[in-house]
Write a structure and sequence with these properties.
Chain lengths: ~350, ~110
């Protein structure tokens, strides 16, 4: 089931609002008489490099941005043995993607990505990443000086057609900000209970909060004529999924990298999927050999490209790849011919 | 004799009730038969072509596997010689990765 309804964060409805707990960006347009909202999933900062909270604005916009690598990231990569250039030009290697909105808080951006699989993960150095398609839409729709507000609201409450909903995202009550948010939302629920004179099911509220399913869950009917929860909608499966990797055909005249050799097919497919979803993508497939499964990355046009993939597998996925040379021309010819009698 | 007369009678009655096939009907049947035969031929050709494609893909996969085996053997031999271990045909299982490896790989 895909979440198609979202509870808006408890903030002024203007400009861009990002709720890091929901990993979702909201773009408000218009005024209170005719307000529209676009919403997109985002990737946010990791635990070590959290996305900063607070008010800021769009200071600069750039198409095909150049990435001036911050010294902290340069240092971290050097330490890992995987040095980065100080400047990464636009192109497939650039993690900013094709468009960027530079925020007034220096060093923080809302940008596209060359790793679409990172959307919905805490994997940035504090920036906010969008799917390339979503970034284009946001970029076109966002002028300079648009206000940006970043909040952390893991618990959201909203009403629709007389039904009260609670949307809970993963949170840690031990953390000060999450605990403060929880107290604020529970105080609001108590207020609703008092104002409507309808007792709320606090056990259910606790359960929904603990489960943190990330979708609005009905918790109470506030009016007699209120309808049941919103109906589910069938959505057409898109012909092409965002970031879905494309795996070229097996080519015997190309270089490959043997990335893994495992006895378990699911594990082989998991490793292949992780390789396929790197940015820029590294194509990988699973080949069965007897009772074992090989994960082959490639094809690569030359040994330099294959060597580069070996490095990326090592640094990014801790996999020790083995270089596989192209199959000899004689074998290629034999393979292309059907066996006698066939 | 009685049986023969009964047979002629049944044939005549059936002919009267059902009606005789006209040349147009026969042509229609013939056309249907031809269409069915053409479809069967096409299905057979498609099946043969799919089989040939699958066999070619398998031959390719086998050749790629053979190349991978050669590379793996060479790499294992190099590792064994570097670590002083005895050479052997043992395949090295790729160690399981920690669950947060992928998330880490999504950083810049």
């Amino acid at each position: 089931m895909l979440p198609l309804s979202f509870i808006l964060p408890d903030t002024p409805r203007r400009g861009i609002v990002i709720n890091v707990a929901a990993m979702r960006l909201f773009r408000y347009k218009g005024d209170s008489n005719r307000l529209t909202v676009l919403t997109f999933p985002v990737g946010i900062g990791s635990k070590e490099w959290p996305t900063p909270m607070g008010k800021m604005s769009v200071k600069r916009k750039e198409m095909r941005p150049t990435w001036h690598v911050p010294s902290s990231i340069l240092k971290a990569h050097r330490k890992k043995g995987d040095p980065l250039p100080a400047i990464v030009p636009p192109g497939p290697q650039n993690p900013l993607g094709e468009m960027a909105l530079y925020l007034s808080k220096s060093g923080y951006l809302i940008h596209g990505t060359n790793k679409p699989a990172s959307i919905g993960l805490k994997a940035t150095h504090g920036c906010m990443r969008l799917y390339p398609e979503d970034m284009k839409r946001l970029y076109d729709d966002t002028p300079y000086h648009t206000p940006v507000l970043i909040v952390n609201q893991p618990l959201l409450i909203g009403q629709l057609d007389g039904v009260l909903y609670l949307e809970a995202h993963a949170h840690n009550p031990v953390e000060q900000t999450d605990d403060r948010e929880r107290k604020r939302v529970f105080a609001r629920l108590q207020l609703i209970e008092r104002q409507t004179g309808r007792p709320l099911d606090w056990k259910k509220i606790e359960k929904v909060s603990a489960e943190a399913r990330g979708i609005p869950v009905p918790i109470a009917r506030l009016m007699l004529e209120s309808r049941d929860e919103a109906p589910t909608t069938e959505v057409k499966h898109p012909a092409k999924l965002y970031g879905k990797p494309e795996i070229p055909e097996l080519k015997l005249d190309a270089w490959y990298v043997l990335a893994a050799n495992v006895a378990n097919e699911t594990e082989a497919r998991r490793i292949a999927a992780m390789i396929n979803h790197q940015g820029p993508p590294i194509p990988a497939r699973v080949l069965m050999d007897g009772d074992r499964y090989r994960v082959m990355a490639g094809p690569f046009k030359d040994v330099a490209e294959a060597d580069d993939a070996i490095k990326r597998l090592k640094f990014d996925l801790e996999l020790s790849g083995i270089l596989v040379e192209p199959v000899s021309e004689l074998v290629q010819k034999l393979v292309q011919q059907p066996p006698p009698g066939a | 004799m009685k049986r023969a007369i009964l047979g002629i009678f049944v044939t005549l009655v059936a002919g009267t009730v059902i009606g005789c096939a006209t040349s147009g009907d026969l042509a229609k049947v013939q056309q249907q038969q031809n269409q069915t035969a053409a479809k069967a031929d096409q299905a057979l050709q498609e099946a043969q072509s799919a089989k040939a494609t699958a066999e070619a893909a398998k031959r390719q996969a086998d050749a790629a596997n053979a190349a991978a085996t050669r590379a793996e053997t060479t790499a294992n031999a190099a590792t064994n010689s570097a670590t002083g271990r005895a050479a052997g045909g043992q395949i090295q299982e790729t160690p399981a990765q920690s669950p947060d490896v992928f998330q880490k790989s999504m950083e810049k």
